[in-house]
Write a structure and sequence with these properties.
This protein is mostly beta strands. It has two domains: 2-69 and 126-148, Roll (Chitinase A, domain 3); 74-120, Thrombin, subunit H (Beta Barrel), CATH 2.40.10. The protein contains two helices and nine strands, in the order βββαββββββα. Residues 6-90 form the PPIase FKBP-type domain. Also involved in hydrogenase metallocenter assembly, probably by participating in the nickel insertion step. This function in hydrogenase biosynthesis requires chaperone activity and the presence of the metal-binding domain, but not PPIase activity. It is an enzyme of class 5 (isomerase). One of its GO terms (cellular component) is cytoplasm.
């Protein structure tokens, strides 16, 4: 079956930076990625590269920063009050997840002062060229429940328990 909108794709990937350093490897974690094609579950550049591929396909994709996590924006580096953190000990390099305007965002601590913390809300991979090695394991039609939710559902999910908002 060919990858197209409304189909669930299962794949393994190895994500590397420009220099070839591995940043993530789904096979090493023994956890393939499953996504619903055409629903914005993965980066548009990856979705575009995967469209039309079949199970068994292996491909390499290089995404420039604008196609991946965006360019670094120095305006996203700012100082916040020390009281904004949920833990006593805060150190440079620590990361926290916090609600953002467009959903959860990762906050990286750059510097800790007596009464303030300098943070960076750029995605940790913003500004980086990313290289993916992809292997398509399976392609199947999405269920009505998956289309309603906009993403694959775990095996054994009772479709009757899924609120059907997206499909007429």
């Amino acid at each position: 079956m060919t990858i197209a909108p409304q189909r669930v794709v299962t794949l393994h990937y190895v994500l590397s930076d420009r220099d070839g350093s591995v940043l993530d490897d789904s096979r090493a974690r023994r956890q393939p990625l499953e996504y619903l094609h055409g629903h914005g579950n993965i980066m548009a550049g990856l979705e575009h590269a995967l469209a039309g591929q079949d199970a068994g396909a292996q491909l390499s994709v290089t995404l420039m920063p604008a196609e991946a996590y965006g360019l670094r924006d120095e305006a996203l580096v700012r100082e916040v009050g020390r009281h904004s953190f949920p833990v006593e000990e805060v150190a440079p390099g620590m990361r926290f997840q916090t609600p953002g305007d467009d959903g959860p965002e990762i906050v990286t601590v750059l510097e800790v002062r007596d009464d303030a913390v300098v943070i960076d809300t750029n995605h940790p991979l913003a500004g980086q060229v990313l290289r993916y090695r992809l292997e398509v394991l399976a392609v199947r039609d999405a269920t009505r429940a998956e289309l309603a939710k906009g993403h694959p559902l775990p095996p054994g999910t009772d479709p009757g328990e899924v609120e059907d908002k997206k499909v007429p």
